[in-house]
C-alpha cells in the first residue's frame, strides 16, 4: 500500500458528509460543513490525488454483475515469486483483491465466480500461474460486516466522542 496523507478532523467531517450523501455538490458540502467552497474543492482534490478516496469501481458489488459466488484463496508462493504471481493474479478478472500476509500463507486472494464450475476454472487458472505452489479455497457463506470506515472517520472528526 502506498503512503498517503493523514486525514484530519475537517477531512473526516467532509468524508462523513460524502458517506451520507455521495452525490452532494461541492456547494452543498461547503454549506453543510460551514467551509468555503474553494476549501472543500481543494480538500476533495487532495484526498483523491493522495489515494484517500478509493476508485468508484470499488462501490460496485460483483453480485450485481452476476458473480454471486465469493471465495477466499490462501495461496502459497515460491520464494521471491510474489511480484510475478501478484501481477498474474491482477490479470484475472475474477480476482477482486489480493493481500500479502505474514505466516504460512503468502497471499489472501478474494475471487468471485458465477457458479461452482466457474470457481473451479478460476482455481485452475490460479494454480497454473508459475510460482504458485498451493491454493486452499474457502467459500464466503455470508458477510456479517461490510467493509466500513465510518466509525473511524467519526472518531477522527470528533475525538472527544467515546466509542
Automatic annotation (TrEMBL):
InterPro entries to which the protein is assigned, alphabetical: AsnC-type_HTH_dom, Dimeric_a/b-barrel, Tscrpt_reg_AsnC-like, Tscrpt_reg_AsnC/Lrp_C, WH-like_DNA-bd_sf, WH_DNA-bd_sf
Keyword field: DNA-binding, Transcription, Transcription regulation
Record keyword DNA-binding present: yes
SUPFAM superfamilies recorded: Dimeric alpha+beta barrel, Winged helix' DNA-binding domain
GO cellular component, as recorded: cytosol
HTH asnC-type domain residues: 7-68
GO BP annotation list: response to amino acid
Keyword hit for Ubl conjugation: no
PROSITE patterns according to UniProt: HTH_ASNC_2
A Pfam family matched in the record: HTH_AsnC-type
A GO molecular-function descriptor: sequence-specific DNA binding
Protein name, entry field: DNA-binding Lrp family transcriptional regulator
Top-level taxonomy: Bacteria, Bacillati, Actinomycetota, Actinomycetes, Geodermatophilales
